TrEMBL record:
The keyword Lyase does not apply. This is MoxR-like ATPase. Belongs to the MoxR family. Residues 66-210 form the AAA+ ATPase domain. Keywords: ATP-binding, Hydrolase, Nucleotide-binding. It comes from Roseospira visakhapatnamensis. GO terms for molecular function: ATP binding; ATP hydrolysis activity.
Length: 349
Protein backbone atom coordinates (compact mmCIF):
# COMPACT_ATOMS: atom_id res chain seq x y z
CA UNK A 1 0.00 0.00 0.00
CA UNK A 2 1.35 3.41 -0.94
CA UNK A 3 1.21 6.05 1.76
CA UNK A 4 0.50 9.60 0.74
CA UNK A 5 2.33 10.83 3.83
CA UNK A 6 5.70 9.38 2.71
CA UNK A 7 8.45 12.05 3.11
CA UNK A 8 9.48 13.51 -0.20
CA UNK A 9 13.08 13.62 1.01
CA UNK A 10 13.25 9.82 0.65
CA UNK A 11 13.28 10.30 -3.11
CA UNK A 12 14.76 13.73 -3.74
CA UNK A 13 14.74 13.28 -7.51
CA UNK A 14 11.13 12.09 -7.71
CA UNK A 15 8.08 14.27 -8.02
CA UNK A 16 5.24 13.18 -5.73
CA UNK A 17 2.60 15.15 -7.71
CA UNK A 18 1.38 12.41 -10.12
CA UNK A 19 1.30 9.76 -7.36
CA UNK A 20 -0.63 12.03 -5.01
CA UNK A 21 -3.06 12.95 -7.79
CA UNK A 22 -3.65 9.29 -8.65
CA UNK A 23 -4.27 8.38 -5.04
CA UNK A 24 -6.61 11.35 -4.59
CA UNK A 25 -8.61 10.35 -7.67
CA UNK A 26 -8.79 6.77 -6.43
CA UNK A 27 -10.04 7.85 -3.01
CA UNK A 28 -12.57 10.20 -4.59
CA UNK A 29 -13.87 7.41 -6.83
CA UNK A 30 -14.28 5.09 -3.85
CA UNK A 31 -16.08 7.80 -1.89
CA UNK A 32 -18.43 8.48 -4.80
CA UNK A 33 -19.17 4.76 -5.17
CA UNK A 34 -19.98 4.42 -1.47
CA UNK A 35 -22.14 7.53 -1.48
CA UNK A 36 -23.92 6.43 -4.65
CA UNK A 37 -24.85 3.12 -2.99
CA UNK A 38 -26.17 4.89 0.13
CA UNK A 39 -28.15 7.41 -1.91
CA UNK A 40 -29.60 4.60 -4.03
CA UNK A 41 -30.76 2.92 -0.82
CA UNK A 42 -32.27 6.20 0.41
CA UNK A 43 -34.04 6.74 -2.92
CA UNK A 44 -35.53 3.24 -2.75
CA UNK A 45 -36.69 3.90 0.81
CA UNK A 46 -38.48 7.07 -0.26
CA UNK A 47 -40.05 5.35 -3.28
CA UNK A 48 -41.64 2.76 -1.00
CA UNK A 49 -43.69 5.57 0.54
CA UNK A 50 -44.06 8.04 -2.35
CA UNK A 51 -45.53 6.34 -5.42
CA UNK A 52 -45.09 7.35 -9.04
CA UNK A 53 -42.96 10.44 -8.37
CA UNK A 54 -39.46 9.23 -9.21
CA UNK A 55 -38.52 12.47 -10.97
CA UNK A 56 -39.72 14.50 -8.00
CA UNK A 57 -37.77 12.33 -5.56
CA UNK A 58 -34.64 12.70 -7.67
CA UNK A 59 -35.13 16.46 -7.85
CA UNK A 60 -35.46 16.74 -4.09
CA UNK A 61 -32.40 14.54 -3.50
CA UNK A 62 -30.32 16.50 -6.02
CA UNK A 63 -31.29 19.72 -4.26
CA UNK A 64 -30.35 18.41 -0.82
CA UNK A 65 -27.08 16.88 -2.04
CA UNK A 66 -26.21 20.22 -3.61
CA UNK A 67 -26.92 21.94 -0.30
CA UNK A 68 -29.83 24.03 -1.60
CA UNK A 69 -33.53 24.72 -1.15
CA UNK A 70 -36.36 23.41 -3.29
CA UNK A 71 -39.67 24.90 -4.44
CA UNK A 72 -42.33 22.22 -5.02
CA UNK A 73 -45.19 23.21 -7.34
CA UNK A 74 -48.26 20.99 -7.45
CA UNK A 75 -51.97 20.77 -6.82
CA UNK A 76 -53.22 19.45 -3.45
CA UNK A 77 -53.14 15.73 -2.85
CA UNK A 78 -49.86 14.90 -4.60
CA UNK A 79 -48.00 13.95 -1.39
CA UNK A 80 -45.87 17.08 -1.11
CA UNK A 81 -46.15 17.10 2.69
CA UNK A 82 -45.62 13.35 2.83
CA UNK A 83 -42.51 13.71 0.69
CA UNK A 84 -40.91 16.20 3.07
CA UNK A 85 -41.79 14.07 6.09
CA UNK A 86 -40.33 11.00 4.40
CA UNK A 87 -37.15 12.84 3.43
CA UNK A 88 -36.70 13.90 7.05
CA UNK A 89 -36.96 10.31 8.31
CA UNK A 90 -34.89 8.64 5.57
CA UNK A 91 -32.11 11.24 5.72
CA UNK A 92 -32.15 11.48 9.52
CA UNK A 93 -33.01 15.19 9.62
CA UNK A 94 -34.95 17.16 12.19
CA UNK A 95 -37.96 18.20 10.09
CA UNK A 96 -40.66 20.75 10.91
CA UNK A 97 -43.66 22.08 9.03
CA UNK A 98 -45.14 25.58 8.97
CA UNK A 99 -48.49 26.25 7.33
CA UNK A 100 -48.21 29.69 5.74
CA UNK A 101 -51.34 31.83 6.11
CA UNK A 102 -52.07 35.55 5.58
CA UNK A 103 -51.94 36.23 9.33
CA UNK A 104 -48.60 34.46 9.88
CA UNK A 105 -45.99 36.82 11.33
CA UNK A 106 -42.17 36.68 11.02
CA UNK A 107 -41.86 35.90 14.73
CA UNK A 108 -44.00 32.80 14.17
CA UNK A 109 -41.20 31.46 12.00
CA UNK A 110 -38.00 32.91 13.44
CA UNK A 111 -38.89 33.05 17.13
CA UNK A 112 -38.99 35.96 19.56
CA UNK A 113 -37.52 37.32 22.76
CA UNK A 114 -39.59 37.29 25.94
CA UNK A 115 -38.98 39.23 29.13
CA UNK A 116 -38.56 36.98 32.15
CA UNK A 117 -38.08 37.70 35.82
CA UNK A 118 -36.17 35.40 38.15
CA UNK A 119 -36.73 34.78 41.86
CA UNK A 120 -34.61 37.79 42.80
CA UNK A 121 -36.63 40.13 40.66
CA UNK A 122 -34.01 40.51 37.96
CA UNK A 123 -35.37 40.83 34.47
CA UNK A 124 -33.75 39.58 31.30
CA UNK A 125 -34.74 38.72 27.78
CA UNK A 126 -34.70 35.08 26.68
CA UNK A 127 -34.83 34.01 23.06
CA UNK A 128 -37.39 31.34 22.19
CA UNK A 129 -36.44 29.73 18.85
CA UNK A 130 -39.12 29.38 16.19
CA UNK A 131 -39.71 26.42 13.88
CA UNK A 132 -37.00 27.66 11.47
CA UNK A 133 -34.47 26.17 13.90
CA UNK A 134 -34.52 22.75 12.32
CA UNK A 135 -32.66 20.92 9.56
CA UNK A 136 -35.51 20.48 7.09
CA UNK A 137 -38.24 23.13 7.09
CA UNK A 138 -41.39 22.64 5.07
CA UNK A 139 -42.94 25.99 4.19
CA UNK A 140 -46.38 24.79 3.14
CA UNK A 141 -48.15 27.08 0.65
CA UNK A 142 -45.48 29.72 1.11
CA UNK A 143 -47.21 32.17 -1.24
CA UNK A 144 -50.18 32.52 1.12
CA UNK A 145 -48.14 34.54 3.62
CA UNK A 146 -47.54 38.27 3.33
CA UNK A 147 -44.32 39.54 1.71
CA UNK A 148 -43.11 40.62 5.14
CA UNK A 149 -43.35 37.06 6.43
CA UNK A 150 -41.92 35.58 3.25
CA UNK A 151 -38.90 37.84 3.57
CA UNK A 152 -38.25 36.46 7.05
CA UNK A 153 -36.85 33.37 5.34
CA UNK A 154 -34.45 35.26 3.06
CA UNK A 155 -31.61 35.59 5.53
CA UNK A 156 -32.15 32.07 6.84
CA UNK A 157 -32.00 30.56 3.35
CA UNK A 158 -28.92 32.49 2.26
CA UNK A 159 -26.83 32.83 5.42
CA UNK A 160 -28.16 29.95 7.55
CA UNK A 161 -28.70 32.31 10.45
CA UNK A 162 -31.38 34.76 11.59
CA UNK A 163 -31.34 38.13 13.29
CA UNK A 164 -33.84 38.77 16.09
CA UNK A 165 -33.76 41.94 18.19
CA UNK A 166 -30.27 42.75 16.90
CA UNK A 167 -28.78 39.38 17.85
CA UNK A 168 -27.69 36.70 15.39
CA UNK A 169 -28.65 33.08 15.93
CA UNK A 170 -27.08 30.29 13.88
CA UNK A 171 -29.36 27.65 12.40
CA UNK A 172 -28.65 23.92 12.66
CA UNK A 173 -26.57 22.31 9.95
CA UNK A 174 -27.54 21.19 7.45
CA UNK A 175 -30.45 23.55 6.87
CA UNK A 176 -32.85 23.23 3.95
CA UNK A 177 -36.19 24.76 3.03
CA UNK A 178 -38.68 22.81 0.95
CA UNK A 179 -41.51 25.16 0.08
CA UNK A 180 -44.76 24.26 -1.64
CA UNK A 181 -47.13 26.21 -3.85
CA UNK A 182 -50.53 25.44 -5.36
CA UNK A 183 -50.44 26.50 -9.04
CA UNK A 184 -54.23 26.57 -9.46
CA UNK A 185 -55.83 28.64 -6.71
CA UNK A 186 -54.18 32.08 -6.69
CA UNK A 187 -56.86 34.04 -4.83
CA UNK A 188 -55.46 35.47 -1.61
CA UNK A 189 -51.84 34.67 -2.48
CA UNK A 190 -48.74 36.85 -2.68
CA UNK A 191 -46.26 36.05 -5.48
CA UNK A 192 -42.79 35.35 -4.17
CA UNK A 193 -40.35 38.21 -4.85
CA UNK A 194 -37.59 37.55 -7.36
CA UNK A 195 -34.89 37.80 -4.69
CA UNK A 196 -36.46 34.96 -2.74
CA UNK A 197 -37.14 32.82 -5.80
CA UNK A 198 -33.45 33.08 -6.65
CA UNK A 199 -32.62 31.47 -3.29
CA UNK A 200 -34.30 28.25 -4.35
CA UNK A 201 -31.79 26.04 -6.10
CA UNK A 202 -34.49 24.21 -8.06
CA UNK A 203 -38.19 24.36 -8.82
CA UNK A 204 -39.73 20.90 -9.09
CA UNK A 205 -43.12 20.58 -10.76
CA UNK A 206 -45.23 17.71 -9.44
CA UNK A 207 -47.74 16.07 -11.76
CA UNK A 208 -50.29 13.31 -11.32
CA UNK A 209 -48.96 9.73 -11.03
CA UNK A 210 -49.67 7.23 -13.79
CA UNK A 211 -52.35 4.57 -13.44
CA UNK A 212 -50.07 1.81 -12.11
CA UNK A 213 -48.51 4.10 -9.51
CA UNK A 214 -51.89 5.40 -8.41
CA UNK A 215 -53.14 1.84 -8.03
CA UNK A 216 -50.14 0.91 -5.88
CA UNK A 217 -50.69 4.03 -3.79
CA UNK A 218 -54.38 3.22 -3.39
CA UNK A 219 -53.68 -0.31 -2.21
CA UNK A 220 -50.89 0.74 0.16
CA UNK A 221 -52.47 3.76 1.83
CA UNK A 222 -55.91 2.21 2.41
CA UNK A 223 -54.66 -1.07 3.90
CA UNK A 224 -54.79 -1.94 7.58
CA UNK A 225 -51.05 -1.35 7.86
CA UNK A 226 -49.31 1.36 5.90
CA UNK A 227 -45.65 1.47 4.90
CA UNK A 228 -43.61 3.80 7.09
CA UNK A 229 -40.24 5.27 6.08
CA UNK A 230 -37.05 4.07 7.74
CA UNK A 231 -33.85 5.95 8.46
CA UNK A 232 -31.03 5.30 6.00
CA UNK A 233 -28.66 8.26 6.48
CA UNK A 234 -27.90 10.74 9.25
CA UNK A 235 -27.49 14.49 9.18
CA UNK A 236 -23.71 14.02 9.39
CA UNK A 237 -23.86 11.65 6.41
CA UNK A 238 -25.71 14.28 4.39
CA UNK A 239 -23.17 16.97 5.29
CA UNK A 240 -20.34 14.66 4.25
CA UNK A 241 -22.15 13.98 0.99
CA UNK A 242 -22.56 17.71 0.34
CA UNK A 243 -18.83 18.21 0.83
CA UNK A 244 -18.14 15.34 -1.54
CA UNK A 245 -20.37 16.88 -4.22
CA UNK A 246 -18.13 19.94 -4.27
CA UNK A 247 -15.09 17.71 -4.85
CA UNK A 248 -16.55 16.11 -7.96
CA UNK A 249 -14.55 17.29 -11.01
CA UNK A 250 -16.38 19.22 -13.72
CA UNK A 251 -14.99 19.23 -17.24
CA UNK A 252 -14.48 22.38 -19.29
CA UNK A 253 -17.18 21.32 -21.75
CA UNK A 254 -19.74 21.17 -18.95
CA UNK A 255 -18.66 24.54 -17.56
CA UNK A 256 -18.90 26.10 -21.03
CA UNK A 257 -22.34 24.56 -21.53
CA UNK A 258 -23.55 26.06 -18.25
CA UNK A 259 -22.20 29.49 -19.10
CA UNK A 260 -23.66 29.37 -22.61
CA UNK A 261 -27.07 28.34 -21.33
CA UNK A 262 -27.28 30.92 -18.54
CA UNK A 263 -25.76 33.88 -20.37
CA UNK A 264 -27.95 33.30 -23.43
CA UNK A 265 -30.94 33.63 -21.13
CA UNK A 266 -30.12 37.29 -20.44
CA UNK A 267 -31.41 39.84 -22.94
CA UNK A 268 -28.35 42.00 -22.30
CA UNK A 269 -25.77 39.36 -23.20
CA UNK A 270 -27.30 37.18 -25.91
CA UNK A 271 -27.56 37.23 -29.68
CA UNK A 272 -30.78 35.21 -29.69
CA UNK A 273 -33.62 37.30 -31.08
CA UNK A 274 -36.23 35.27 -29.19
CA UNK A 275 -34.62 36.06 -25.85
CA UNK A 276 -34.23 39.76 -26.61
CA UNK A 277 -37.87 40.00 -27.64
CA UNK A 278 -39.52 37.77 -25.03
CA UNK A 279 -37.43 37.82 -21.82
CA UNK A 280 -37.94 40.63 -19.32
CA UNK A 281 -35.12 39.51 -17.03
CA UNK A 282 -32.87 36.49 -17.12
CA UNK A 283 -30.97 34.27 -14.69
CA UNK A 284 -28.14 35.74 -12.62
CA UNK A 285 -24.80 34.25 -11.57
CA UNK A 286 -26.49 32.28 -8.79
CA UNK A 287 -28.16 30.24 -11.55
CA UNK A 288 -24.74 29.18 -12.88
CA UNK A 289 -23.64 28.13 -9.42
CA UNK A 290 -26.86 26.23 -8.80
CA UNK A 291 -26.65 24.44 -12.14
CA UNK A 292 -23.04 23.40 -11.57
CA UNK A 293 -23.77 21.97 -8.11
CA UNK A 294 -26.96 20.29 -9.28
CA UNK A 295 -25.13 18.61 -12.17
CA UNK A 296 -22.52 17.23 -9.80
CA UNK A 297 -25.20 15.95 -7.43
CA UNK A 298 -27.13 14.32 -10.28
CA UNK A 299 -23.98 12.56 -11.43
CA UNK A 300 -23.47 11.08 -7.97
CA UNK A 301 -27.14 10.13 -7.80
CA UNK A 302 -26.61 8.13 -11.01
CA UNK A 303 -23.36 6.62 -9.76
CA UNK A 304 -21.08 8.63 -12.05
CA UNK A 305 -17.84 10.35 -11.08
CA UNK A 306 -18.31 13.48 -13.18
CA UNK A 307 -21.27 15.36 -14.70
CA UNK A 308 -21.94 15.56 -18.42
CA UNK A 309 -23.70 17.95 -20.79
CA UNK A 310 -26.73 15.68 -20.54
CA UNK A 311 -26.97 16.68 -16.86
CA UNK A 312 -26.93 20.34 -17.85
CA UNK A 313 -29.76 19.82 -20.32
CA UNK A 314 -31.80 17.71 -17.90
CA UNK A 315 -31.52 20.25 -15.08
CA UNK A 316 -31.85 23.42 -17.15
CA UNK A 317 -35.59 23.77 -16.65
CA UNK A 318 -35.83 23.14 -12.87
CA UNK A 319 -32.86 25.44 -12.22
CA UNK A 320 -33.83 28.28 -14.57
CA UNK A 321 -37.64 28.31 -14.77
CA UNK A 322 -38.13 30.37 -11.59
CA UNK A 323 -35.22 32.68 -12.37
CA UNK A 324 -36.63 34.12 -15.59
CA UNK A 325 -39.67 36.17 -16.59
CA UNK A 326 -41.26 36.87 -19.94
CA UNK A 327 -42.37 40.25 -21.23
CA UNK A 328 -46.00 41.30 -21.50
CA UNK A 329 -45.81 40.90 -25.27
CA UNK A 330 -44.50 37.35 -24.89
CA UNK A 331 -47.33 36.43 -22.55
CA UNK A 332 -49.83 37.90 -25.01
CA UNK A 333 -48.33 35.71 -27.74
CA UNK A 334 -48.46 32.61 -25.53
CA UNK A 335 -44.68 32.34 -25.11
CA UNK A 336 -43.75 30.77 -21.76
CA UNK A 337 -40.51 30.52 -19.80
CA UNK A 338 -40.24 26.75 -20.49
CA UNK A 339 -40.46 27.56 -24.20
CA UNK A 340 -37.53 29.96 -23.84
CA UNK A 341 -35.54 27.39 -21.90
CA UNK A 342 -36.10 24.79 -24.62
CA UNK A 343 -34.71 27.30 -27.10
CA UNK A 344 -31.69 27.90 -24.87
CA UNK A 345 -31.02 24.19 -24.59
CA UNK A 346 -30.82 24.00 -28.37
CA UNK A 347 -27.80 26.34 -28.25
CA UNK A 348 -25.83 23.87 -26.13
CA UNK A 349 -24.13 21.30 -28.29
Amino acid sequence: MISTSMPTSAHPSASPGPVAETLEDRVLLEDVDRLGARIKEARAGIARVIFGQEAVIDGALVTLLAGGHCLLIGVPGLAKTRLVQTLGVVLGLDAKRVQFTPDLMPADILGSEVLEQDERGRRAFRFIPGPVFCQLLMADEINRASPRTQSALLQAMQEHKVSVAGHYHDLPAPFHVLATQNPIEQEGTYPLPEAQLDRFLMQVDIGYPDRAAERAMLESTTAARTVEPESVLTADDLRAAQRLVRRVPTGDSVVEAILTLVRNGRPESTDLAEVKAHVAWGPGPRASQALALACRARAILDGRLAPSIDDVLALARPVLVHRMATTFAARADGVTVPDIIDRLKATVG
